[in-house]
Structures are given as structure tokens and as C-alpha cells.
């Protein structure tokens, strides 16, 4: 593990190796490099005028991570009372919290309103009715459906409506006493296709114009999340995405509107390194299997949706083999990856999983009795 892998900084890598060497911590656990998070936060939004960042808490709701982000004065995007409670306990003011989940539970909505949250997404008449009843007079933005091609984790089939419906919903919200302030969309998570943002912003522009013709005065464009990180392949960088997005917004929207960005993965993803242990090896048929102590159920859930991680093993051997990598549970679903080229480790060796700071611990369960891994900031 002496050589630094390609896309992690030498500084982070040294911190990780030092932590492992100096601490006899039981694996698996997740290390998060605070400096990487800080750097990412300073990068995001930098190229988009009038923008504010609202970190999507579901990517990693670890208390220490949220504390760090709070100290960096980001906003937060939340969807549940659990997420709200952590932020409340950290003293985050409601002005820095929005909720873009188009379907809110009654309990959450109640508590969010009580806390003073004023910004809510919606994409149905039923949700507008619910908001009008439980959050009268609040600010609402409609979720527009946009292309998710090129995203490794598409979201467009679950939420979002087409133009005509979105327009009708904004008008309806106003009739119901809500304040329709704007439009949101999500290009899909881990989106490596910069044109998705262009298409989405164009579509939002058409809706914006149509809304103005109906006498609605909008002020907010929320461009959602989706910024990608490096897992095994290089991706389009944030600066490139933002320059393009800023240009289109500047050409096509009034210059004084607010832009909200809701990154989750890009804030914490590549700050994370999972530290795991090889617990077994097997030859099954003609496949080499590596069994490790973190798997689909206790941290690497996204692997079954197609996210491929980069692994680094401590090994004396230099020749590589092709491995199927599996987690510790007895479930046959618990296979993280296939055809991974790695030098052969010994049982008991460490195996590190890079870019694993987002959508890992937040998905983890105690299935089969394996505890949820700890998160440690370095
Ligand atoms: C999950 C989510 C995000 C964050 O998406 P990333 O792809 O992690 O950046 C942003 N906004 C909403 C509404 C979400 O549901």
C-alpha cells in the first residue's frame, strides 16, 4: 500500500495509512478526510453566480460530518425528522435548511414547520394540499422531470412532472395560499453527462417563462445534486459543469435569481476510505472469491446498483488475479463486485475501498448481526 493510488491525494493517503498503523481499530470502519470535505465545499458553487449550497444530508448524516459542514456554513437539504433532529441538535438555524423530497411524511412536515423550515419541493396536487394544510404560506418549488441519461444512479422515474403539469401545479399552489417560488430538478446521481444540466436548465427556463405569463413571479432555481466523483473512472469536473451551467443560467434567466445546489455525493464521497479486512478466500468453480468484512448490507449497498469501487490491498504478491468480492453475510445478494484485478492478499490483510464516503454508512443495516461500521474523521 506504499504507492498512492491514482486519484487520491498523497496527503489523504498518508493520513489514512497513518491512522491504520497507529490505531488498533476493529474493522470495518469508514475514514473521512476533513480537508477533502472542506476543499470540496469551497469548490462547489464557486462558478455559479448567486448560488448557495445545501448539502443533501442523506449522503452521509454522520454527526461529526454534519458538524464540520455546519462550521463551513453550508446549508442542508433534508427529508426526514431524523435528519432534522441531528441538525437541530447542532443548532443549525431553519433558514439554512430546505427540503426537496416531493413526498413528505406528516410527522416530518409537522416538525419541519414547527422548527421554522420554509422551503419545500412538491410535484403533485395531493402534496400541495398537504402543504397548504400543514405548512400554510410556505415557499414551494415544483420538481420538474429532466433527462437522467448518463447518470449511474437515475432518479427521474420516481419524481418530477412534465412542463404542463408543473405549470398547473405552481398555479394551483398559489390558489391554495402557498408561495410558489421556483423550480427544481435532479439530473440523476453520479451524473457524468454535462449536457443533462444544459437540457434541464433549458427546460426550467421554458417553465419559468410560462409561469411568468400566468402572473407568477419566481425567484429560485434549484439545480439539485448529481455532481459525480471518481470511483474507478475519471469524471467531468465540477468546475466544467458549473461554468456551463452558470453560462446558460446567465443567458436565459433574470440576473437576480437565487440558485440552490444540493450536492450529496460530491461533498463527502471521495473524502471517504473504508477500511476492511479479508476474512476468507475461496475458489468456487473457476472463480476466485475474496470475502471481506464489509458488504452490501453494512455499507456497500450502492454496489448492487452499479457503483464500482476501487480496492487497494496490502499484499506481498505482485501478480494480479481476478476476484469476486463478497461481504460477510450469508445472503447470496451480498456480492459487491466481480472481475476485480488485485494482487492476492492473505486472510487477515486489510483491504481499503476508496471514494466510499457517500451513500455507504447511511444505507447500512445490522442485517445478519453485523454492526453498522463506525465513521471516523481524520
Ligand atoms: C439525493 C438528493 C440530492 C443529492 O444528490 P447527489 O447525487 O448525491 O448529489 C439532492 N437533492 C435531492 C432532492 C435528493 O434527493
Structure description:
The protein is an alpha/beta fold and 378 residues long. It has two domains: 10-31 and 271-377, Lyase, Ornithine Decarboxylase, Chain A, domain 1; 34-267, TIM Barrel, CATH 3.20.20. The protein is built from ten helices and 18 strands. Strands 1, 12, 13, 14, 15, 16, 17 and 18 form an eight-stranded mixed sheet that branches. Strand 10 (220-222), helix 9 (238-252) and strand 11 form a beta-alpha-beta unit. Helix 7 (163-175) crosses helix 8 and helix 8 (195-213) packs parallel to helix 9 (238-252). It is elongated and about 70 Å long. The mean pLDDT is 95.
Q: Report the major sheet.
A: 8 strands, mixed
Taking all Cα atoms into account, the compactness measure Rg is 22 Å
As a percent range, the share of strand residues is 15-25%
By CATH, the topology of the largest domain is TIM Barrel
Q: Structural class, judged by helices and strands?
A: alpha/beta
**How many angstroms does the end-to-end distance come to?**
18 Å
Stretches where pLDDT is under 50 for at least 5 consecutive residues are none
| Associated small molecules | pyridoxal-5'-phosphate
CATH H-level superfamily title of the largest domain:
Alanine racemase
The sequence of SSEs as H and E is HEHEHEHEHEHEEHEEHEHEHEEEEEEE
How many beta-strand elements?
18
Mean pLDDT over the residues: 95
* CATH arch. level architecture of the largest domain: Alpha-Beta Barrel
CATH class of the largest domain: Alpha Beta
Q: Given the structure, what is the number of helices? A: 10
Q: Please state the overall shape, judged from the principal axes of the Cα atoms.
A: elongated
Number of domains: 2
Percentage of residues in helical conformation? 25-40%
Amino acid at each position: 500500500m506504499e504507492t498512492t493510488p491514482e486519484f487520491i491525494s498523497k496527503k489523504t493517503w498518508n493520513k489514512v495509512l497513518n491512522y491504520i498503523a497507529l490505531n488498533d481499530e476493529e474493522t470495518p470502519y469508514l475514514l473521512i478526510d476533513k480537508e477533502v470535505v472542506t476543499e470540496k465545499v469551497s469548490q462547489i458553487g464557486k462558478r455559479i453566480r448567486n448560488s448557495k449550497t445545501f448539502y443533501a444530508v442523506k449522503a452521509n448524516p454522520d454527526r461529526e460530518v454534519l458538524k464540520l459542514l455546519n462550521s463551513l456554513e453550508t446549508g442542508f437539504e433534508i427529508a426526514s425528522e431524523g435528519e432534522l433532529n441531528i441538525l437541530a441538535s447542532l443548532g443549525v438555524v431553519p433558514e439554512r435548511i430546505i427540503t426537496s423530497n416531493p413526498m413528505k411524511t406528516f410527522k416530518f412536515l409537522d416538525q419541519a414547520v414547527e422548527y421554522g423550515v420554509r422551503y419545500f419541493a412538491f410535484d403533485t396536487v395531493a402534496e400541495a394540499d398537504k402543504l397548504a394544510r400543514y405548512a400554510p404560506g410556505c415557499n414551494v418549488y415544483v420538481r420538474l422531470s429532466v433527462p437522467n441519461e448518463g447518470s449511474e444512479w437515475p432518479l427521474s422515474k420516481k419524481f418530477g412532472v412534465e412542463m404542463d403539469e408543473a405549470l398547473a401545479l405552481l398555479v394551483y399552489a398559489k390558489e391554495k395560499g402557498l408561495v410558489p417560488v421556483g423550480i427544481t430538478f435532479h439530473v440523476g446521481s453520479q451524473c457524468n453527462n454535462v449536457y443533462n444540466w444544459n437540457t434541464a436548465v433549458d427546460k426550467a427556463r421554458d417553465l419559468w417563462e410560462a409561469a411568468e405569463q400566468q402572473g407568477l413571479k419566481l425567484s429560485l432555481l434549484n439545480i439539485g445534486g448529481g455532481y459525480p466523483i471518481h470511483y474507478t473512472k475519471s469524471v467531468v469536473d465540477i468546475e466544467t459543469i458549473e461554468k456551463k451551467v452558470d453560462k446558460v443560467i446567465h443567458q436565459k434567466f433574470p440576473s437576480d435569481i437565487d440558485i440552490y445546489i444540493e450536492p450529496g455525493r460530491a461533498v463527502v464521497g471521495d473524502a471517504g476510505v473504508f477500511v476492511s479486512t479479508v476474512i476468507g478466500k475461496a475458489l468456487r468453480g473457476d472463480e476466485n472469491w475474496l470475502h471481506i468484512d464489509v458488504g452490501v448490507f453494512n455499507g456497500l449497498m450502492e454496489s448492487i446498483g452499479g457503483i464500482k469501487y476501487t480496492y487497494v490491498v496490502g499484499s506481498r504478491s505482485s501478480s494480479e488475479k481476478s476476484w469476486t468480492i463478497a461481504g460477510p453475510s450469508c445472503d447470496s445478494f451480498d456480492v459487491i463486485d466481480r472481475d476485480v484485478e488485485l494482487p492476492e492478499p492473505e486472510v487477515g490483510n486489510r483491504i481499503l475501498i476508496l471514494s466510499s464516503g457517500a451513500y455507504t454508512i447511511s444505507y447500512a443495516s445490522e442485517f445478519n448481526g453485523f454492526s453498522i461500521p463506525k465513521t471516523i474523521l481524520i
